[in-house]
Queue: 3 jobs
Job 1
Amino acid sequence: MAIPTIRRFLFGEPFPTSREAHERLDKVRALAVFASDPISSNAYATEAIMSVLLVLGTGALSMTLPLGLGVAALVLMVIFSYIQTIIHYPDGGGAYTVTKDNLGKIPSLIAAGALLTDYVLTVSVSSAAGVRAVTSAFPELVEYRVWMALAAILLITWVNLRGVRESGTIFAVPTYAFVGGVLLVIGIGLVRYWGWFGLTPIVPETHEMVEGAALSGFAYLWVLLRAFAGGCTALTGIEAISNGTKAFQAPESKNAAQTMVAMGVMAMALFIGITYLSTHLGLIPEASHGESILSQMTRQITGTGFLYYWVQIFTALILFLAANTGFQDFPRLSSFLSKDGFMPRWMQNRWDRLVYGSGIMTLAVVSSIIVIIFHADEIAMLPLYALGVMLSFSLSQAGMFRLMGRISKLKPGEVLETQYTRIHYETGTGWKRAVNAIGAVVTFMVLIVLIATKFTEGAWIVVVAIPLLVYMFNSIDHHYQEVKLGLRTKDLTSEDFPPIAEAVIIPIGDINRCSLQALRYAQRLSTDVRAVTIVTDQATLERFKIRWERFPEITEGIKLEAIFYDYRDILTPLVDYIKKVNTVEFPDQVITVVIPEFVSDNLMENLLHNQTANFLRTRLQVYQDIVIIDVPYQIGVTRKRHKEIPEVMAESPATSSKN
Amino acid sequence: MAIPTIRRFLFGEPFPTSREAHERLDKVRALAVFASDPISSNAYATEAIMSVLLVLGTGALSMTLPLGLGVAALVLMVIFSYIQTIIHYPDGGGAYTVTKDNLGKIPSLIAAGALLTDYVLTVSVSSAAGVRAVTSAFPELVEYRVWMALAAILLITWVNLRGVRESGTIFAVPTYAFVGGVLLVIGIGLVRYWGWFGLTPIVPETHEMVEGAALSGFAYLWVLLRAFAGGCTALTGIEAISNGTKAFQAPESKNAAQTMVAMGVMAMALFIGITYLSTHLGLIPEASHGESILSQMTRQITGTGFLYYWVQIFTALILFLAANTGFQDFPRLSSFLSKDGFMPRWMQNRWDRLVYGSGIMTLAVVSSIIVIIFHADEIAMLPLYALGVMLSFSLSQAGMFRLMGRISKLKPGEVLETQYTRIHYETGTGWKRAVNAIGAVVTFMVLIVLIATKFTEGAWIVVVAIPLLVYMFNSIDHHYQEVKLGLRTKDLTSEDFPPIAEAVIIPIGDINRCSLQALRYAQRLSTDVRAVTIVTDQATLERFKIRWERFPEITEGIKLEAIFYDYRDILTPLVDYIKKVNTVEFPDQVITVVIPEFVSDNLMENLLHNQTANFLRTRLQVYQDIVIIDVPYQIGVTRKRHKEIPEVMAESPATSSKN
């Protein structure tokens, strides 16, 4: 099957550029779309706290609930201060946009690097955690977990390359099914735990008390901080709504803000519920790849029945949807960066189905590598996670703080215009500014805690990666600026171009149909054509000359130059000769090299030929003053071409208009 | 460090083509050079017999000696009939040459495929066995055996790429040291075993008799045949002298024949000695990677003293030398095949140091893969080994049989001229022919035994590989024949070439320095230049036109054609347009496409640009009637080039001669 056919089969018919989807979401569906990431964190956030506390012994697990409440407070504060962003950037105000608009280039690149890192981890962590939900229910699958996680990523990649949009309905089912299922389990759990309505009370599991490290003072506080940092993974994905304000129905800002509050309440209700029950039922996190806390909790409350499998299935699904969120966010942000010249230009090219294919592929590859390195163990990946999000929170709130300062200077009726938004005079900037300041400072402090406590567990990777990304963005920007300067046409006249010399050089190894065709083409081009041949001795040259003279019509007016060279690497003397003509005979002029090229469209056949023509072209391509002419020669091509043309012409979707 | 510098450091200065080594070897050194392969087989051949017999129980090991004598008889017969080859092909008569000269193309390709397979296995088996000699003495190294074998192959590859020739002296030391050491051990062993000269007699090891499978009749015979087949690995490398007759001092044939006899006697003396003592001392082969039989025998006879380490060290060295033999034979045979058009032409290219580098690299890669697959366990590889050699023996003897028939028809004074040799009238062709016939039949029967007994143990790989190789040789030959036909200049006149049309097409995305430079070049070429641009809508086109009209000097006389296209894949409409011009407007004529190409010699920078120019060239290169002109444009290249030129010019070893 030809590659275009396979491509169509896999990805469907290409979409025309003029067809752009502008779906607007109502609040119910928007909640489902944007909440899958933060809500799905409930599959691992509680466990992340508990598994740290376990070093202090099973007794210390009682600290899980207070720490969970601290995380919930942080979430509510972040949501509260993000509402300001939503209101002031109705066209979408992700951390990159807000930071760029208010703090300048470098902070915005830091925010972008942080977000990209986190989007990659969203995919790795969510797909690994989704697989864990499956293997918790079916432990015999645990040895295939890496393959399963990679298959999940591959499937999500394929769906995204086909360009299936964030269809609210598709998202709504697993999100609400998960929330409903877990809320039901929590409800039953609380009722049974408290012994209400005469239901069989649950007897908390009694484990032998395991003594942990007996720590005190600073060391104890350190473990608590680390546990808190583990819980902060619950915050990932909260910022998504601020990015996607434009996807809401009007009034966008208001709807988005309300949805954000609903999302926060829902996510935290689950988080606190799970945390309360896990600790009060005496659950203990298992070693890596073991049964998850959520699975243990559900099993203990409802038994291994319908509701248990319901929760496990929708846990897996909502986690895969959360991974899908990464596939929406990463390509979108990288296309912004690409448009601004901080990432390769082709990252903004839309593929056949109008998707940012390069971004999707980059994300798929990098997140798969992380899954492989960490053996699909999401608990091991968590120390890398949430850092990026926290850094972008902090930067974005700092940007908002700055913006509020500028707004406070407006007089009634005045309008503040920035690159990304347009803001009217408003009151209450003082307390809004204070909210943003607190948000910036608190998230920055949490960031420091995250880095400090998780540094040796893997966070150092992110600490190294973000500056490298910023450096890369900056270098790319620098290169594109240089290119822009080099290509500019301002005040350009044709005298600015180097003159084109008559000299045409044509390297010839042997006299055959291929080289004769090239000689014929060269002969028409100029009056100063030089055929250059490399020989080891006089006898070879004489034999060559006899063949040369057999075709006076074609070789007439062409000067034959022979270079004696006693090594096999014939490219060296050829390139030396060409350089000499280019720099000594015709300095600062453009010369032409004609390359007779024997080509085949069959890769295996090409391997059978010396790739001299290709190597020569590669060596010459770096010289600005050398034009290269490929005169192709291919055996049996005529037959092939005439067979192929008609259908191609018939299929062509192009319409030509003469000017 | 630049690549050329690294290359020089690793491989030394290039050798000029005129410097070709023509070392002639005296008999003592020639024996050392050619005998390393067959003599080194003694490191594993006896063990290969014993490890098969072990399935019948330890009692059956007494059959080792009779089977070994059978192998020795086969060796002497093969040597005897090979002497005929040496005499009749004084310029070298490997199996490929003799078969091609007498039986035709397909048999010769079968012989070549068989030999190439065996050369690869020579390298894999010998390096693995060499490592085994080391790990027998130092068992703690056994877990690194794969790495050690790969390192040995890498080292041998490097030495061969540097072009160190088969220097007789280098070979003489380990070969004679090994032969001397083992003969001494055998001597002491026999003396002690028989209790002569009052030396402490060796008490044979007494093992508990292990009962093996109680087989009878055909099944028993089958095991004996399999054991015999194992011993046939002692025959590998015997044919090397017939290939290298030319390396001997005059009279070449006589010296080569005498050396072959000496080699056979020496190799068989070791083989029978080792076999006799191993069985009479009651040695039992250990499981894979255990101590080798030769090591066990030496240790029991001489203790773990000086002589023991001497034998182990020189066993390892002679095995690595045997691996080196593969690195001489494989590239030489593949260069023959390449010259005859059965392998890619570049296999005959000599690299900097006048070696057949592609052959060396191919061998290194394939033999390393086999070492990895078989975990450097040479006993496991042996079932694949010796098949190829036996097949080539058989074909070569059959060829000699045919040759003798042709010689017998000569009258006194007449001369038989074939492609590879020149033979005068001679007598006694009758019995010589009989010897060759027996040789051909016996080796063919042994081949059948080898295939039948080892098929499921891995021999099937070789049985599959050889026909595949023959198919490949044949396809390559077919392709080159077709190319030769397509390129031939017989009766060629310039009317045979398609006329060159004036049409010049230049795709343009934007007006900038890069595209303007290309337009300027195109303008000079022809009166029918068409600039083609792909646009999505009229507004874009209008903006483009305004920029276009700013440079009347450059765009004068160039027709601007706009193609409206609502997809992102701009190559499709471009290629369609070019094809239409090529097939509808100018059928059967050559048209020209000018590609403005933005290039950089920095790979990372190139990644930042859309590779449209490269993709377009790749798509157009398969069309015979389209000449492609690359007009390069590079930022900042001028500065770079002027820095680089002077030293290159100074270094150039080329001398130019104007004609």
Note: Chain B has 25 helices and eight strands.
Job 2
Amino acid sequence: MKKIFFLLGLLPALNCFCQTDRSSFDPKVTEVWDLKPVKISPAKKIGDPPSDAIVLFDGKDLSKWTTAQNSEAKWDIKDDAMIVTKGKGDIKTKQTFGDMQLHIEWRTPDEVVGEGQGRGNSGIFLQERYELQVLDSYESVTYSNGQAGSIYKQSIPLVNACLKPGEWQTYDVIYMAPRFSENGRVIIPAYVTVLQNGVLVQNHTQIQGGTEFKGLPVYRAHGKASIQLQDHGNPVSYRNIWVREL
Amino acid sequence: MKKIFFLLGLLPALNCFCQTDRSSFDPKVTEVWDLKPVKISPAKKIGDPPSDAIVLFDGKDLSKWTTAQNSEAKWDIKDDAMIVTKGKGDIKTKQTFGDMQLHIEWRTPDEVVGEGQGRGNSGIFLQERYELQVLDSYESVTYSNGQAGSIYKQSIPLVNACLKPGEWQTYDVIYMAPRFSENGRVIIPAYVTVLQNGVLVQNHTQIQGGTEFKGLPVYRAHGKASIQLQDHGNPVSYRNIWVREL
Amino acid sequence: MKKIFFLLGLLPALNCFCQTDRSSFDPKVTEVWDLKPVKISPAKKIGDPPSDAIVLFDGKDLSKWTTAQNSEAKWDIKDDAMIVTKGKGDIKTKQTFGDMQLHIEWRTPDEVVGEGQGRGNSGIFLQERYELQVLDSYESVTYSNGQAGSIYKQSIPLVNACLKPGEWQTYDVIYMAPRFSENGRVIIPAYVTVLQNGVLVQNHTQIQGGTEFKGLPVYRAHGKASIQLQDHGNPVSYRNIWVREL
Amino acid sequence: MKKIFFLLGLLPALNCFCQTDRSSFDPKVTEVWDLKPVKISPAKKIGDPPSDAIVLFDGKDLSKWTTAQNSEAKWDIKDDAMIVTKGKGDIKTKQTFGDMQLHIEWRTPDEVVGEGQGRGNSGIFLQERYELQVLDSYESVTYSNGQAGSIYKQSIPLVNACLKPGEWQTYDVIYMAPRFSENGRVIIPAYVTVLQNGVLVQNHTQIQGGTEFKGLPVYRAHGKASIQLQDHGNPVSYRNIWVREL
């Protein structure tokens, strides 16, 4: 019989100094006092930004955003939401980020148009390159690694947790940026956890490289980068976007 | 200059078959169609149980719970909450769990009594042994690896995201159970991610072993186990408890 | 200035009980006595099997092996090595494995024939499905995720650490099997670390699913499985194969 | 019956575009050509430095080493080995390192003196703070998280893979440095894998913070740092030390 560990306590002849009697241990030895987490104020309502969040969009204006080409962002704003405006192109945050907790709310059009990848398609590019898919895949059929909640063409969501088109949905994202060696090789890949509407859809998923429509994802070294929202030609809305740097 | 990877495209003499021209690639090759995530219905309100959740406490009764000794659970229920009832001991779920997403809400007494570990102390034992601390540490001073949001005596929360005593707080927990070899040795430790009031306080934290008041944590092999709530003598309340098996 | 943690020791007014003075701590509290690792005997010569290894091939016979179809393995044996014998098909271990440390030595023909994937091609399928590539890629050009040391079509080796064709090479592999949920979904992917000729070529690489020649890898639930060696039509030799279950 | 994933292929009515027929896929789409690992030369004999290694000690002199206080290192050298020389203090590499593969050989005195932590004690401090224990624990009894192969007071080795006192032993170490946030908090802990005499004794072990004799380990932010060898008063020998930066 194989045995890797055995309990010394079970041995017939036992050196008394081998038995761990914890009762006499001072519990203070395993207390840590000299590092204190900073106190922040969480929101009263889950989903609203806590005191240490950077609010990226509060319904008023696009002052924190530019186009992907660094010119003025021109998506429409209506009813406290920004709306992908066809032909205006992707927009991205002026500020760049690494590891972060991201909250973002999105809504696909209540008037359903198109199918598969043509229905309510947009996307959230973490660090401008790793796409968390936004899509109306409530009932529409598409490939599983391309539906809402997927890391596009890399990781299928654990469940389809979509609400109906026209309803506001939330993504709560914990994102750990990749680390690169001095030689430009990825040495710690990115990891992402996503809750969609409060339901876990990506569980510490390892990202395989930059999102690719064709062929395999590949890592290319980069530093901090923006959060980028995709103009895929469909009027998807976004609101209540905030981020906490980790 | 050292270089681990180089781009073949930069070489003067390039074998044409080495250059990857993705333009001709068929994008269907990286679509996955034949695995489909099951469709579930998320709650309309974040925090409420989605359709695939097991509701452990809905405010009505303790029918899903027993004492740690498997007799009838006798905590008081009031205003849709269960209250730690001094002397009634810990309670645990009748059902046992492994990997899970757990939602639980808790409230420490609005009348502040005691200090440090004596103020509003309770705890959530994942699999009956790994304690996510519950404590009124809004203003009270205690050791950092013993405050609310800590994995007790193992991991300090990233921030103090506490609400005031008397206010309802939430934990959203993603828990990956440890894996043991046939010999009883831990081979993949447990990992836990915790959002407190929507704020990340534990980020894929590796659990070091069973929670110990004295001495170091140590792993001992186990299978599925209950979620256990601690009676530490303070009237802490719990409500809206649900779990999704992963 | 943002600050998540601060040192209490730096504060002007310090509650004396907050400062951790470790000098009075009993060092015994952080000693662990009651779990003892089993004592094994390592080999005198690195590469030879330690006392707790299961020797899968010692140069004598194929008694531990069958074909993939569970009939008698018929590869040739010569000079203490087994040789891929064209047309005899893949062979696999009779015993099945999960997490393991694997040592295996291989040699591609000293007479170089063919190019790219046609030169000295074989492969080690961990659990019958995850291929660690064996190839003469000392000087031959092929795709990087298909050269020796790669997880085939998934992960490029960190460096090309190949010896010349005709020389014996070693793989030391640390393999953690994937874990699946009761529903057949992968919940912890497989990870693999590989040293080729003593040089790290795969560093805790996450495996993305079963090896696929066409299209993306996909996980399908399985239990313990064999180590399988590929007949790719080239007379690659293997010797000194042993495994330690973790 | 619960089911997270189902195979579309099993459904009675199947949309033909849902079934993945991989046979028509072009296998080139999953080839990666444009990133090439650099070619290095492994040693002919396992344990000797490959061509891209930095040799830290080749048996001749301590030119790559200083004392912990940055003055001249004064350990004795004899028979191509350096020997811990009582009273000369710890020595460390002049060069500093982050992620690395480390090879080091060590020998405790063949004349056994002392017991437990007093017998052939030294240690290898990764980045000057995370101790991989060196000890004659072939037969001597000590606490398990303090024996050879342990991460001192943090992680027990998987097996006791020690050779006899007086025999040369090897450590092959894969070390991933911790990453800290801009605020000084650890955001990705260090991980270490150790083969002792070719046998896995630490398997992707998470390091909990700097090594502490008393109390719990705690992380404090740092950058690249030296490899440091401990003078614990016993004449332990070291030889053939090399490192590869990852």
Note: The first strand of chain B starts at residue 5 and ends at 7.
Job 3
Amino acid sequence: MAEKNELQHSLRALIGESYVLTEEQDMAGYRHDGRGAAGGVPLAVVRPDSAQAISALVRWAADHDVRIVPQGGATGLVAGGVAGEGGEDVLLSLDRLTRYIEIDPVNRTATVDAGVRLSVLNAAAAEHGLFFPIDLGADPTIGGMVAANTGGARLLRYGDVRSNLMAMDMVRANADGTCLSLGGPLWKNNVGLDLKQLLVGAGGTTGIITRVTVALQRLPDARMTALVALNDPHKALPLLLDMEKALGAWLSAYEGMSQIAMIAAFAHVPGLRMPFAEIPPYAVLIELSAGGAFDESMMEDRLAAVLGPMMEGEGAPVLDVATDQHDGLWAIRHAVPEGLRAKGYVVGCDIAMRRGDVMRFRDDLADRISRDAPGFVPHDFGHIGDGGLHYNLVWDIAQGVPDFAAVEAARHIVFDAVVQDYGGSFSAEHGIGPRNIAYYRKYVPEAIQALAGRIEKNMAPVASGRVSFGLMEE
Amino acid sequence: MAEKNELQHSLRALIGESYVLTEEQDMAGYRHDGRGAAGGVPLAVVRPDSAQAISALVRWAADHDVRIVPQGGATGLVAGGVAGEGGEDVLLSLDRLTRYIEIDPVNRTATVDAGVRLSVLNAAAAEHGLFFPIDLGADPTIGGMVAANTGGARLLRYGDVRSNLMAMDMVRANADGTCLSLGGPLWKNNVGLDLKQLLVGAGGTTGIITRVTVALQRLPDARMTALVALNDPHKALPLLLDMEKALGAWLSAYEGMSQIAMIAAFAHVPGLRMPFAEIPPYAVLIELSAGGAFDESMMEDRLAAVLGPMMEGEGAPVLDVATDQHDGLWAIRHAVPEGLRAKGYVVGCDIAMRRGDVMRFRDDLADRISRDAPGFVPHDFGHIGDGGLHYNLVWDIAQGVPDFAAVEAARHIVFDAVVQDYGGSFSAEHGIGPRNIAYYRKYVPEAIQALAGRIEKNMAPVASGRVSFGLMEE
């Protein structure tokens, strides 16, 4: 304990008394991520407000052989941004690294400190008619978004964070805490290895992001959503292709919801307005948005031209359509996770596959799960437009608490199938952290893990982040 | 020479007699890149047709301490894909690695061998109404496009190669010639460090790309171009912002041409049709394209709504507008490089800066060049929509041949200004090779070069590619 006190004392001397938290009650707000589960109690929570102070912290950590765990908005879902057990990590909160916000409306770029929240960036950008188009349910920090390479619901139209990232300031996790500026506010720039890419989606394991420049887009002048009730989930894919053909770049989101997931949302989330007479076998939420002098009535016309013929006659694939110019229909989609959590224990699987495989996978897995993981019921929803699926298994709490082995077995059924049989991904957009590093070990070939470990070690010889992408034995 | 013959002999035994070229006349076709300048004579040109054969070649190169220089379509502009002087490099041509072409029209992806040309990929994609939207004057191979991270004229709308890249098969330049598959045909996939990023824009220095998966886009259903004659170059930027506002995602290219560059094109390139009564002080080529049920008449209307008011009255910024639904106006833009080469010795500077700085930079540099680099005359054109500028200095051949020191001094004026005074890039989209590695040494901070060198060495312990991004002394 003496050593612990000494370490805390020297941290206070380094960063300033007010910005080093060591009491459990003061640190409580930094111990939960977006999943709500608690991380360990850190040695300290440190809240520097400059890259220079972070550099000093890294040098201190190198001297004292302490691991640094960077935390952005604590909205991650893989426990990558909370301290480990054992009380030995320094949790580096970026919540005070928020001063710099520069919007360049002519260049359509924003340069912001890593601790700035997405909502704050978007409020600043909105003053110029611009926004950062990566859409998420949460309100993460920009640094965290880069560290997770978040995707979200509009990837189809705007890409992921990586494809909107122009530049990064970072502090290396090395003995010197070297500060590097990688890139600039430039749409085109190719000058050798693009080292900032090694921090994208890396969860803080390869260094600490302190400032980023991202591309902005013009806020849409017109936007509408349609919730389309389908008589059969398999109709969702041909409809996607029809919509891409009819709408071009107007199509900004194409989300799917299974019947059972919608039932859970309407049963458990208060205030949701059900737009249909009954909950259909499947529904897709289609968002149209357009810059330029277009209006919603043009969008309505365009949608009707595609959907109208699909509603006619016996066995018509489209049962009903609700439209909205606000966020009412999105509220249904966003309510699904809450509905599932209220219904039971949720085994979340953030997977991706080829778009054409999604519906076949659903049928296939429904069979496998009911046979090999009794008690778990698939409640899937997600980003059908990009092949991303939140394939969640719900264990009804009426059955009691599921045992750990059963949960793991169920998850392995899903991951084995998506990776080995469908060539898909066991981590579409949540990234890798303590929660899923075991699957990384299982599914990523050893030659890639070994190489990743060597690259990571070169980037960050001082321990940074919760996991390592190297082989465990290295 | 005995050793040389032995090496060539063992290469033939490894790859097959027919696919190892060692006679100067047979190798002549592999010695020129897109700039037309000759590289050195290689030890041999080797043309394997599989990743396995490339792996064997790498093991051979490791055993014999020979450098491998990968060559795609030989359309690069920085000499990265031609052999060095000295006769010691093996030139690895990918021109037979072309068998695998798979278009997945539902997923909107293409998986192709690295030696497949852009035109071949696009012909295969067009059968499904799709295309790979990176537009270039040349017809490179896909592997080369990744290795250069090409940008082109439609970056504004579709991004660069990196943001359209999903997966890569590669052969490591290590003693084992390890074959790795990095990623899959997935729109979302985040499983640790994304190592394929280290081969993007790296010119073959970090390994050999053998197959890639890229995202495809739907071919536009409607497309038109407008050439807008401006009374003043400074009007190009406000017009860009107006167009972005009015056209949204319909705006797919926004290219600028200086008056003197246009004069050179019309003077020296036969068959160009001049659409205006006289060549204006500046012109922008605007491309509109749209997927979905839109047509060119809607585009004409939209354009007219913006441009009409700008043509009225004394001192109106828009002097004239020509429109086209084919590629006639693009032909003018694409003729500019040829026009400049016909006019004199061209010192090409592939630079980028913030969009808002472009016109100020042009004015500034025109002064600096006329003062400090007499005899050189700026003839710029380029991608105003993304801040990319082909800032070319032309030395009239009537003045005789410029001396090397004068050329270098002129180029340094441009690069010093763009990097040091404007925070821009000395290599926007051509990448780094022997032609410009000296500028990399000058402008990239040592801490970044040192780190890049270590990462490169980890990726490729066996010499691959023409340059190294590490510090020279390492």
Note: The first strand of chain A starts at residue 20 and ends at 21.
